[in-house]
Design goal:
The structure holds two protein chains of two kinds. By secondary structure, chain A is α/β, with parallel strands linked by helices. Chain A is built from seven helices and eleven strands. The longest helix of chain A has 15 residues, at 41-55. Residues 1-6 and 15-19 of chain A have low confidence and may be disordered. Helices cover 37% and strands 17% of the residues of chain B. Residues 1-12 and 28-76 of chain B have low confidence and may be disordered. The chains are: A alpha/beta, B alpha+beta. Chain B: Its EC number is 1.1.99.39.
Chain lengths: 256, 554
């Protein structure tokens, strides 16, 4: 596996700090103006894993990919500061970006993987703003590659990959062929802090911008969002001083 | 220029006092005569407490002798000035008293020992009182009734907020009634145009922060204890914290207070005006009074807008001189967006790694700096920060570092500074010192203390608000060690006094440091404080045994 290119996807996702999430007045979505964009935490773990593999000299090159508007380049820079070698920014903005979903992203990734002749695609298991958990799986299907999702341990053995997956019942050990798609789960590693010398170096690394059309991908969405609503307001509870009070209140509320 | 500074100690003996006065006058006269530049250059390499320097004559021995007397009982036995004095002749709580309290505070008069116990012990678990009554009022009126009654019955009262104080000021010494503000936790008003927040004294600082953040504002102060400390207590102790560098002290940001005086009188100074020069500014007297002049029941405070762009930088420096130069560079290149400049030493990092398993985000360095910037434009701030970091790295002031712009990473970097106190509690019994010094001297105290203590101490660490000239010096030992304490004190206080520093920069005096006030304040000033206390609380029922020194009682 030592001479192959590794592609790592960094998803720029909206980093909400609750309780600031507000639904747009027209109920078509969530307010995103003025909300900070930052790297999806699971994608950070994926980048860290990729950089670790490169440091162990098991892979040759780490390419960080991000789909989105101009600001996505900052997310790529963070990946470069962590140790990725170069970046590809797939420029999707405006309405196209609002409607960009897992199917479109996976088509883009599949096209890039073919173009770059990648042997391994490492992504976060899901983005924390939409929680879809679909992109990795769809990409593998489009490429007809094996997939190792929810990985909490990854090791390369010749041209095969040993994976430990976190599943509901416990841990599953599998072995898959390469080329493959891996999605990172929380316990795969602890992402490093990008240190100043690396942040400075990253400014000089290359980021290439392409459009989905250049890759032959149509980003029209097959989904239509009908409505976005806030969850029902939680009613405040009530404290009572004595058991007698409790019984009275329960009777009043018709519960007893 | 008034360069005469007297170290005046409680009159151990008039002869001694006379000798001292003459010796110190001689010393200061010598100073004034000598070339000032020569003096400062030569003392740069000497420790300030250099009793064998050519400028001090035989006076040095007498100064030493008198200060040691301060730390010995009249018969020469070693009674620490930080130990509690004898119980004053307050009345004790009777069944009648309890009946009265229960009438006004139904269900909120606590006498169950298990429930009172946590309020009898301070956060450091270093002092314990023996109060049997915990009162939990919800309104100012209830506080007024309680104090009026206690004043008439000569019952001592210990006001208590979050009980996070570090000088033993928040817990009873004997059987003082604990007056807790925990249930007075309502936010009364917030004006989103002026940014003035009005709330009851028992509001937890962190809760106020959350409330304000939803409305695009922040509290003007922030400290590690935010999850438990209450705003009333913060004001009563004039808490400093991590944002003082940017937003100033509570003396500036508190616009109004509502208090209850010792006799139950409610003093309504709860103004929300930014400017009001009508008469004496009474609230200033109560800010920092540590519950000895009145009980704060409501606060109105001016809050700044939440910054749109916050960045935190964690840097490593090889020497303290480089750290100070980095501070200079920081002020010049980041000046208007700088909101915090904190430091910790490598010993602190070791404790964080060992006891809290927090990893070092950068490589090991002797000193670490936490810098926070807060501004209104992320792009501008990023540019300023980038320029500063590039300059710091290329001029080798800084040997390593990392930057955080997201919430989670920012919290992680801050926790390295905020959790040092916690890490110390796991290291053993901690002796804490909170000192204000000229900034360039700050670390000298730590190195001198290490040398002075040798291996009598387990760890000696220095960290703190270096931007404000405030050092937190901590010494740990496996268990309480009077011999170690005797080595640390009065060495640390004398060292501080010789630089004209403060022996308590932000922690206050409380129980533990009340008798050391003379290291930083002149006796006339302390006497005036006593007069004010006597005027506002003639029976002395409010938080007795705290803040003011014992010898005032005479």
């Amino acid at each position: 596996l030592s001479c192959k290119v590794l592609s790592s996807v960094v998803t720029p996702c909206y980093c909400f700090v609750s309780p600031q999430i507000r639904v747009k007045p027209d109920n078509t979505g969530v307010v995103t103006d003025g909300v900070k964009h930052s790297m999806n935490p699971f994608c950070e773990i994926a980048v860290e894993e990729a950089v670790k593999l490169k440091e162990k000299k098991l892979i040759k090159e780490v390419v960080a990919v991000s789909c989105g508007p101009q600001q996505s380049q900052e997310t790529i820079r963070t990946a470069l500061a962590m140790g990725a070698d170069r970046g590809i920014h797939v420029d999707v903005s405006g309405k196209d970006y609002e409607n960009l979903g897992p199917l479109q992203v996976s088509k883009i990734l599949a096209a890039l993987a073919k173009q770059e002749d990648a042997q391994l695609i490492l992504l976060g298991k899901q983005a924390i703003d939409d929680d879809c958990n679909q992109t990795g799986q769809m990409t593998a299907a489009l490429l007809d590659w094996p997939q190792g999702t929810f990985a909490s341990e990854v090791s390369l053995e010749g041209d095969k990959i040993n994976l430990v997956r976190e599943i509901d019942g416990g841990l599953e050990h599998i072995k898959i062929n390469t080329p493959a798609v891996i999605t990172a789960d929380l316990r795969l590693n602890t992402p490093r802090y990008a240190t100043l010398p690396n942040i400075m170096k990253a400014k000089k690394k290359k980021i290439v911008t392409v459009k989905p059309a250049d890759l032959g991908v149509d980003v029209t969405s097959r989904l239509e969002v009908l409505k976005v609503e806030e969850p029902p307001q939680r009613q405040a509870g009530m404290k009572v001083e004595t058991v007698e009070d409790l019984v009275v209140k329960l009777k009043e509320a018709g519960r007893v | 220029m008034h360069c005469c500074w007297e170290l005046v100690l409680p009159p151990v003996s008039t002869v001694m006092a006379g000798l001292l006065k003459r010796a110190l006058r001689l010393r200061t006269a010598l100073r004034c005569l000598c070339d000032y530049n020569m003096l400062s250059r030569s003392t740069a390499t000497l420790s300030p407490v250099d009793f064998h320097s050519p400028f001090l004559t035989c006076s040095s021995e007498q100064v030493l002798a008198s200060t040691r007397k301060l730390h010995a009982g009249a018969d020469g036995s070693k009674v620490s000035p930080s130990a509690a004095p004898e119980r004053l002749p307050f009345c004790r709580v009777t069944e009648e008293d309890l009946a009265f309290f229960r009438k006004i505070l139904a269900g909120r008069t606590i006498v169950d020992p298990d429930l009172v116990e946590p309020s009898n012990v301070d956060w450091l678990k270093s002092v314990r009182g023996s109060s049997e009554v915990l009162l939990r009022p919800q309104t100012t009126e209830e506080v007024s009734q309680i104090l009026s009654y206690c004043n008439s019955r000569n019952l001592a009262v210990n006001p208590q907020g979050g009980n996070t104080g570090l000088v033993g000021g928040s817990v009873p010494v004997y059987d003082e009634i604990i007056l807790s503000t925990s249930l007075m936790n309502k936010i009364l008003n917030f004006d989103s145009i002026s940014g003035v927040l009005t709330c009851q004294a028992g509001c937890v600082l962190e809760n106020l922060s959350f409330y304000l953040e939803e409305r695009d504002y922040i509290m003007p102060l922030d400290l590690g204890a935010k999850g438990s400390c209450q705003i009333g207590g913060n004001v009563a102790t004039n808490a400093g914290g991590l944002r003082l560098l940017r937003y100033g002290s509570l003396h500036g940001t508190v616009l109004g207070l509502e208090l209850v005086l010792a006799d139950g009188q409610v003093l309504d100074c709860l103004s929300t005006l930014r400017k009001d020069n009508t008469g004496y500014d009474l609230k200033q007297l109560f800010i920092g009074s540590e519950g000895t002049l009145g009980v704060i029941t409501a606060v109105s405070i001016l809050c700044p807008r939440k910054p749109k762009s916050v960045n935190v930088v964690f840097l490593g420096c090889e020497t303290f001189e480089q750290l100070l130069k980095t501070f200079q560079l920081c002020k010049s290149m980041l000046g208007e967006i700088l909101s915090a400049f904190e430091f910790l030493d490598s010993e602190c990092m070791r404790l964080l790694n060992t006891h809290l398993k927090l990893p070092n985000p950068i490589s090991d360095c002797p000193f670490y700096i936490v810098i926070e910037t807060s501004g209104s434009d992320p792009t501008h701030d990023a540019q300023k920060l980038h320029n500063f970091l590039e300059e710091a790295m290329t001029s080798s002031l800084v040997s390593d570092g990392t930057v955080a712009t997201e919430e989670a990473k920012i919290k992680a970097l801050w926790s390295l500074r905020e959790r040092v106190t916690e890490a110390l509690t796991h290291d053993g019994f901690t002796y804490k010192y909170d000192i204000s010094l000229p900034v360039e001297r700050i670390y000298q105290l730590v190195t001198d203390m290490r040398k002075h203590l040798g291996n009598r101490a387990k760890s000696v660490v220095g960290y703190g608000h270096v931007g404000d000239g405030n050092l937190h010096l901590n010494v740990t030992s496996p268990s309480k060690d009077p011999a170690l304490l005797a080595a640390i004190e009065p060495f640390v206080y004398e060292w501080t006094a010789s630089c004209r520093g403060s022996i308590s920069a932000e922690h206050g005096l409380g129980l533990k440091k009340r008798n050391y006030i003379y290291y930083s304040k002149q006796s006339q000033a302390v006497a005036l404080m006593g007069n004010i206390k006597a005027m506002l609380d003639p029976k002395g029922i409010l938080n007795p045994y705290k803040t003011l020194p014992d010898n005032l009682k005479q």
